[in-house]
Every structure is written in C-alpha cells, then in structure tokens.
Design goal:
- Helices cover 78% and strands 0% of the residues.
- By secondary structure, it is an all-alpha fold.
- The protein has a domain of 187 residues.
- The longest helix is centred in the C-terminal third of the chain and has 51 residues.
- The protein is elongated and about 125 Å long.
C-alpha cells in the first residue's frame, strides 16, 4: 500500500511540476528556442510557394462550352431540336381525346346504328379527326366490298400513324448522332493537344491532363443530349402505338357486321369517279346513226 501511495504521489507531483519545469527550461535557453529549425524553414517556403501559385477558380457553364470546341455549336442545335421534338411529341401522343374524340365516336355509332351511311360519310367530312378520317376512307370504299374497305382502313391508319410518329423518329436520329459528334470533337481536340505536346515537350504534365479534360467535354455533352433523346423516343413511340391500337379497335367496332351485300356498287362519297367503261366498249354500245 505504501509503495502504491508513493508511486501515485510521485506521478502527481511530476504532472503538477512538469509545466513549470518546461517554463524554466525555456527561460534558461532563449537562444535555442528562437532559432528556427529546418522543418520550420521548409514549411514556411512551401507556404510562400502556395501563396504565389495562381488560385484555381470555378469555371462557368459558358467557359466549359467554349472549351468543347466548334462541335459544341452542332450539339447546341441538337439540344434545341431535342427539346422541340419532345414537346411536339407530347402534344401529339398524350392528347388521346384529340385522336379519338368521344363526340365523334358517339355520332358515328348513332349513324351506323341507323344505317345512314351517307350521313355518316358527311359527318366524317365535316368533323375532322384521325378517327373520322379513317372512317371516311372506309365508307368511301364500302360499295367495293369488305376487302377494299379493310385495305382503305389499314392504309389510312398507317397514314395517321406516320403523321403521329413523323417527328418522334428524329429523336432516335439525334440520339445516335450526338455522341458521334461529341466523339469527333474529342478526337480533334486530342490531335491538337498531342501536336502541342510534340512541339513543346511534356513540360508540365498537369497542362496535358487539363487539355485532355477539356476535349472530353464534347463527348460528355453529346451523351447528355443522347440519353434523354433515346428515352423520350421509346416512350413517345410506345405511347403512339397505344393510341393507334385504340383507334383501330374503335374503327373495327363500327365496321363489324357491315352489310356489304346491300352496299355493293354504292358510292357513298362525293368524290368524282374518273374510271369509266373502255372506249371500245362504249363504241360498241352506241346505237347506230339514223
């Protein structure tokens, strides 16, 4: 017990008087304390060098665009075109009521129930929509039989589908081309960077790495345009296919059980018919001159 007490007392005394001993040692050797060490001199030199180095600043978006080179102009045009095509596609394929209006469906259903196909054709002509265009094409060929009606309906549906997806397909073109354009700008930038390296030597490697980072901006920009373009293309295309399927289903329900046998030879449309009997048949059928 006494030994432990002595050790504890000695330790406490050492801790208590250690600061005073250090202070006395500093007072006893002021010259040595004031003398700078080698580590201090090196640290001070490094601090001065850091102060003299130019400070890196955050670059603006416009500065990054300029670093991409001339191809950024083409990529910028593609970005504006992508935005326009996406908005146009949304207006075309998201408004389902514009493609198959409920009022047009109801009006055609009532006229088909009544068997008034002439009025149905006039209704389609006076109320323009993709639905009425398809129905009008089928009604105009009703007198030619079922096969002719089906061919006319399929042809008009294909036309409506092409009109709906005409601009959407260009999103796929942009999605394919913009990464290639960006890669082309990167290749030209790398050629310029290595040409400079060949004339002036490697010098500072950080400058070479900075140049490589700058030329990669073109590729990154091309990918930033291509990704949303591809995503929008597939989404809008699937949406358009869904609307076209609904259009076909509605038209098919109207023409189901159409009495083609009673419409044989009828001309429901108001278009002028140009096809006539062959002239040699007409000559044989003409009565002899008196």
């Amino acid at each position: 017990m006494k030994l432990r007490s002595l050790i504890a007392l000695f330790t406490a005394a050492f801790i208590a008087f250690a600061p005073f001993a250090a202070a006395l040692a500093q007072d006893a050797k002021p010259a040595e304390a004031a003398k700078p060490t080698t580590e201090a001199v090196v640290a001070e030199a490094a601090a001065d060098a850091a102060k003299n180095e130019p400070k890196a600043h955050d670059k603006s978006i416009w500065e990054h665009i300029k670093e991409g080179g001339p191809v950024m102009i083409i990529i910028g045009i593609c970005s504006v075109a992508t935005l326009y095509l996406i908005v146009d596609g949304l207006l075309r394929v998201t408004n389902y009521k514009k493609t198959v209006p409920a009022m047009h469906v109801k009006g055609l259903q009532n006229l088909f129930r009544a068997g008034d196909y002439v009025s149905a054709f006039k209704f389609c002509r006076n109320n323009v929509s993709p639905l009425t265009d398809v129905c009008r094409a089928g009604l105009s060929m009703a007198g030619e039989g079922k096969n002719a009606v089906e061919e006319a309906v399929v042809a008009e549906v294909s036309k409506q589908n092409a009109n709906m997806q005409y601009f959407i397909s260009y999103l796929s073109v942009i999605g394919v081309c913009t990464p290639m354009i960006g890669l082309l700008g990167t290749v030209f930038g790398m050629i310029s960077a290595f040409a400079t390296l060949g004339t002036s030597g490697i010098g500072d490697p950080s400058k070479l790495s900075g140049a490589i980072g700058e030329v990669l901006i073109a590729t990154a920009s091309g990918l930033l345009i291509a990704i949303p373009a591809f995503f929008s293309f597939y989404w809008l295309r699937n949406r358009a296919a869904k609307i076209i399927h609904k259009l076909q289903e509605t038209v098919g329900s109207l023409y189901r059980k159409m009495p083609y046998e009673h419409l044989a030879g009828a001309h429901l449309g108001d278009e002028e018919l140009y096809a006539a009997l062959p002239n040699w048949v007409q000559q044989t059928e003409q009565p002899p001159a008196a």
